[in-house]
Design brief:
This protein is mostly beta strands. About 5% of the residues lie in helices and about 40% in strands. The protein has an 8-stranded antiparallel beta sheet with strand order 1-4-5-10-6-7-8-9, with no helix packed on it. It has a two-stranded antiparallel ribbon with strand order 2-3. It is globular and about 55 Å long.
Length: about 140
């Protein structure tokens, strides 16, 4: 899994044409503004990375195969956060349940019984690598 590091000056600008209704259509003004995706999606440029989701263990958390997640290493992990974690030589993205005795990595796929919680013990080589801040969905 190779992350793509976002640089402060990466050209991620787009022309935003305004809001679009998700309900009934209505006439709207022709509003146009320049949208800087880096400023919108990246708070800490030097510690933000992109990953492509490979697998389906997190579909109920809105992370489908092929989606892009934006991960910020400067965000402090918190109970219930979705994070990229390193455990025993492998990287995985899971919901993190933090308890006084340790942590449990929780998959988010109720329709597939093959994904089980991963308890993290004191003997595990474990690191919460970075917190997921955005999910970019494929069309």
């Amino acid at each position: 899994m190779e992350p793509h590091k976002i640089e402060e000056n990466d050209p991620l600008e787009a022309l935003m044409l305004g809001g679009v209704k998700a309900g009934f259509p209505s006439p709207s003004e022709d509003i146009r503004e320049k949208l800087d995706l880096t400023k919108l999606l990246v708070k800490h440029g030097a510690s933000t990375f992109f990953f492509r989701i490979d697998g389906v263990s997190m579909v109920d958390a809105g992370m489908d195969e092929g989606d892009i997640i934006i991960v910020d290493r400067a965000v402090d992990p918190y109970d219930g956060c979705k994070a990229v974690c390193f455990i025993d030589g492998e990287y995985t993205v899971k919901r993190v349940q933090i308890t006084p005795g340790g942590a449990t990595l929780l998959p988010c796929n109720e329709n597939n019984g093959k994904y089980r919680p991963i308890p993290v013990g004191p003997d595990d080589d474990f690191l919460i690598w970075g917190v997921v801040t955005w999910v970019v969905k494929k069309a």
